[in-house]
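subagent[fold] <- orchestrator: predict structure for attached chain, return tokens only, no commentary.
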Amino acid sequence: MTPKIAIVILNWNGVNYLQKFLPSVVENSDYPGTKIWVIDNGSTDRSIKLLMESFPGVQLVCLDKNYGFTGGYNLGLKQIVADYYVILNSDIEVTPNWIEPIIGEFEKNPLLAAAAPKLLSYSEREKFEYAGASGGFIDHLGYPFCRGRIISNTETDNGQYNSPLSVFWASGACMFVRASVFHEMGGFDEAFFAHMEEIDLCWRMKNAGYMVFCFPQSTVYHVGGGTLPNNNPRKIYLNYRNNLLLLYKNLPKRRLYYVLFLRFFLDMSSAFIFLLQRKFSFSLSVLKAYKDFIAMRRKCKTDRTKVKWHPEIFKKSIVVGFFLLGRKTFSDYE
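subagent[fold] -> orchestrator:
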């Protein structure tokens, strides 16, 4: 029986990205049982008009306002019936046969809940892309990194990370998800709004006994930073706040307060460095992230009897390795 696959793009005022990248999705997604959907997050630009006039074969779900990445997908996916969702950013160019290798693995392994292709940079096509590279990991202090990207350093793709691998998280930029497990987990945590929600979802999946993989036989090209660029104070705020929420929700109790204690000093050091660099809005973003985390954590419902330590959590610190020891590639930590 042919599985139903829904490629689902969340859009908010992204008419230019849709115009540029949606043709590659349409052209390269003729895999049997596949439909392309756009969930529109209350756009006020020409997105809807473009879709209706130029892409009549694309299905459309219209939301009344911007619910963020988490809310937009949660609301939209409730209206889409499929066996597998492919959560896809609007700023991604896909390649021929990008669907087949990953769906084939899902069909063979009922415990596979989420998977990612290899993400390369759209502008520097020989390099890995920051948001996912060749599979996501996390260190014991909660810093995410990738096979192909450590902190800010993205490696050149020479085929060194082409092997399929069990990873800790699949990038939300292009994430294949078993629909039944997505709904079993309650979807994305809407408290996150945007950023790191995919790591939280994958962590919860792994705690429930499911698997997350990267399959580099499938390749896509990602622009990155399309909605919030890396130098945006709002992005700084969301990254710090959501990282704290991620740790609070998913760490075992015996490690939680030790990690949060260390992270407080590391994050306040970052805020001080931003201050020295006269990036006052960045420094304030870190402080606001802590203030809001303290308020939000009281509402987090976490069953710590279900949280687990996983082998994909690196015991080494990538912050120490990167800044003090000069270890800037994934292979330096293997």
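orchestrator: received. Logging for downstream: The longest helix spans residues 253-276. Residues 286 and 311 are 30 Å apart (CA to CA).
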